[in-house]
Amino acid sequence: MALEAEIQSIVQQFEYSDGDVNNAVKEFLRQMDEGLGKDGTSMSQIPTYVTGVPNGTEKGLYMAVDLGGTNFRVCSIQLLGNSTFTHTYNKVAIPKHLMVAKTAQELFAFLASEIKKFLEEHHSEDFEHHIRRRKTVSSPSGFRDEHIFRMGFTFSFPVKQVGINKGTLIRWTKGFDIPDAIGKDVCALLQAEIDKLHLPVKVAALVNDTVGTLMARSYAAPGKQGSVLGAIFGTGTNGAYVEKLSKLKKPLSGEYDQSTGEMVINTEWGSFDNQLNVLPSTKWDVALEKDSLNPGFQMYEKRVSGMFLGEILRLAIIDLLNNPNVSLFKDENSSSNDRGSVTIIAKDSGLYKQWGLDTAIMSTAELDQDAELAGLRQALENTLDVYAPAYEDAMAFKKIAHAIGRRAARLSAVAIGAIVLQTGKLDDPELKDEPIDVGVDGSLVEHYPGFRPMIYEALSVIDGIGEEGAKRIRIGLTQDGSGVGAALIALVAAGME
Ligand code: ADP
């Protein structure tokens, strides 16, 4: 009984009411506007110099690389011009030591070596052809222009973009910490390492993965209007949307095409409300914050994204384990003296380590509707070394995980809803009954059962959207958007050379 009461108390602390959602939407709109007006605000609202979204007719062979968090992806994309494409890709985990390397060069040299491997593996003919050509041609890079792969570089960290292939790193997030890289142009860092390996590759565009998601979605699902927003809910969270140039008040330093009257804005919404005006803050959010690499920053992301949800859950579970009134994950068959006090958790369980609980198990918990919770209990044993957990204990874990996931989905609706309102498209008489398209990507939104339905539920209570408006918002998965999206931006950039 004590356990049940404690769980209810924890679950209740993760509740985020309809009123909370509406307050947060108002604050989100305010912070968006502030970011469009000047630099140095909580939400950076970064101009991307991309001034339109594709319509599905684009063609050509491009490369794309993606440094987004947990993995580095390298791919080549053949755009077929009919809203479809073919692609080939490699994916490699970023070695942990490179995420906190002494110099930026160490990380970027690794990335260039992976690009080389990819070319050798998948484009060996083109690649050798390039190498032969290089010996006979005297262009600055040593390659004929038509033999150089244009590459979009998806780099999903806060960057001050000053041109389509130029941008300096503002700060690291998601567990990266290489101070040497701050303030440097990340395209130049990568190009330097590519050139050292004599690869026929030009870093043509600096792409945020959210912008890529938006472009990919617009290419694949062209409606009358294209997509209005691309959003990521993976290791981190962020969104990019199409804004009217007239609302973008801060000065721009680079060149861009003004004819469309629009520009894609990378919101960097992970930093929404770093001041905690409207974001919820439980004691577990506070505990996570205290031990995080970047206290005070990415406060929204820390309540929404895959990297953090598991850690919030872990901290709540640890509290329960330390609570003398509660018996959780204890050996009920131990001798009568210590009955209920011997733990069934292995000493080196991830439950006892910071970041030791992967958010993926929250999906397992959510998915498990079995009367015995057999799947979740097995997962607790396999991934967290909790041996033969009782049904009640697994249920406690499931309820807390659900509360944290639900809060994250409702907070996600705040960002999506605010941006849909910002575009004004729901009220545009010309778009009556047209869907308002939103492309999403990331393991959380892809794999967490019920994440999108929970977003919709919260969207429908937002003033100015309501149930009818929520029905018109079409949230669609865009898989590998950072690949094809980056290729599309490289294509746009090549056109501007
Ligand atoms: P990235 O954002 O790094 O490109 P992903 O979109 O795959 O990559 O997101 C990885 C994050 O998603 C990790 O934080 C991981 O804990 C979390 N994750 C992985 N699988 C799942 C899952 N099935 N359910 C919920 N979260 C997951």
Radius of gyration (Å): 24 Å
Per CATH, what is the topology of the domain at 54-221 and 483-496? Nucleotidyltransferase, domain 5
Low-confidence stretches: none
- CATH class of the domain at 54-221 and 483-496 equals Alpha Beta
What structural class is derived from the secondary structure elements? Answer: alpha/beta
Q: Major beta sheet, specifics?
A: 6 strands, mixed
Beta-strand content estimate: 15-25%
Distance between the termini: 69 Å
Q: List the bound ligands.
A: adenosine-5'-diphosphate
Mean pLDDT: 91
Number of strands: 13
Percentage of residues assigned to helices: 40-55%
Strand order of the largest sheet: 1-11-10-9-12-13
Overall outline:
globular
CATH architecture of the domain at 54-221 and 483-496: 2-Layer Sandwich
Number of helices: 17
The secondary-structure element order is HHEEEEHHHEEEHEHEEEHHHHHHEHHHEH
Task: Tell me the CATH superfamily of the domain at 54-221 and 483-496.
Answer: ATPase, nucleotide binding domain
Please give a handful of descriptors for the protein shown:
497 residues, alpha/beta, Nucleotidyltransferase, domain 5, six-stranded mixed sheet, five-stranded mixed sheet, 17 helices, 13 strands, 42% helix, binds adenosine-5'-diphosphate
Strand and helix map with partners:
Elements lengths: L1 H12 L4 H20 L8 E2 L11 E9 L3 E10 L4 E9 L2 H4 L4 H19 L1 H13 L12 E7 L3 E5 L2 E4 L16 H11 L4 E7 L1 H12 L6 E7 L3 E8 L17 E5 L16 H8 L10 H4 L1 H17 L37 H8 L6 H11 L6 H33 L12 E6 L1 H5 L3 H9 L6 H7 E5 L3 H16 L1
Bound molecules: adenosine-5'-diphosphate.
Adenosine-5'-diphosphate binds next to helix 10, helix 11 and helix 14.
